[in-house]
Amino acid sequence: MDTVLITGGSGLVGQALTQLLTEHGYKVIILSRHPHKEDTTLSNSLVTYAGWDLRRQTIDLNALQEADYIVHLAGANVADKRWTAAFKKEIVDSRTQSIELLFNNLQQHPNKVKKFISASGTGFYGENRNGAFTETDPPATDFLGQTCVAWEEGVRKMESLGKKVVIFRTGMALSTKGGALKEFQKPLQFGFATILGNGEQWVSWIHIHDLVRLYFNAIVNPALDGTFNAVAPAPVPHKELVLSMARVVKGKSFITIHVPAFALKLGLGEMSTEVLKSCQVSSKKIQDTGFVFSYPDINAAMEQLFQSKK
Q1: Which residue has the higher pLDDT, 293 or 179?
Q2: How many Cβ atoms sit within 10 Å of the Cβ of residue 251?
Q3: How much is the pTM?
Q4: Each residue of 108-134: pLDDT tens digit?
Q5: Domains of the chain and CATH, by start
Q6: Backbone angles phi, psi at 207, to 5 degrees
């Protein structure tokens, strides 16, 4: 069976993808700065860890040369902290330097990598004006838009090495194990459904199960190539997303509160513009390849995510 090398394999998507791949018999190598200190919860006979260091631009060549596919998920979480100049640099560098390291070593050393599959984000797009964004729309000129441009440009360089390239511009990934949804859950523990701003801003989301299936599909489908939006077919206003979760978790036993835009700007600074940005993104291109979403509807997605915990 083929070997898949994953960067960012200890993250939310990486862990779920590793589980799916090993269930289907794939060998997985997870790149890590500290391969000997990794949590071994995912470890079995099909999962191993290998080292890399972005600052020193070093990588375990044996792992790279063993790979048939590379899935690139590495990158600092943009919501981890306030966007200081230093953290913005980290957001960019963690994406572009990792690509540079992989590209240089694939260029310089014999390898059998067939396809390079990378994350990107719907932050590529700006604020909606007319209809949903498609993959042919231009990027935003703001920080996240230009970060995604640099990220994707680095990934596309892999084509010059004869590799097929797939890029998934990913919306809000819904999982109870991490990400934005876990943050939205916290006030619900005290009976509050917290709406950010007026709640009318559109959110393009995807269930973690469907997101992982997209990556798996990119591996098993040799014909899949290009850039795709990784979002469910039905984006929703932020308010609807939060209330859908609240109804599943609390029934009718919750109080809706709004956090005004000015408070978000004070607390989050520049990042508040992303929280309040309205962004509808189309899933038509990936659906036209034959991919069928298991959770196209927000209510069904929330039911599965939270009922499975009860």
Answers
A1: 293
A2: 8
A3: 0.94
A4: 999 999 999 999 999 999 887 778 999
A5: 3-173+205-231+281-291 (3.40.50.720)
A6: -65, 140
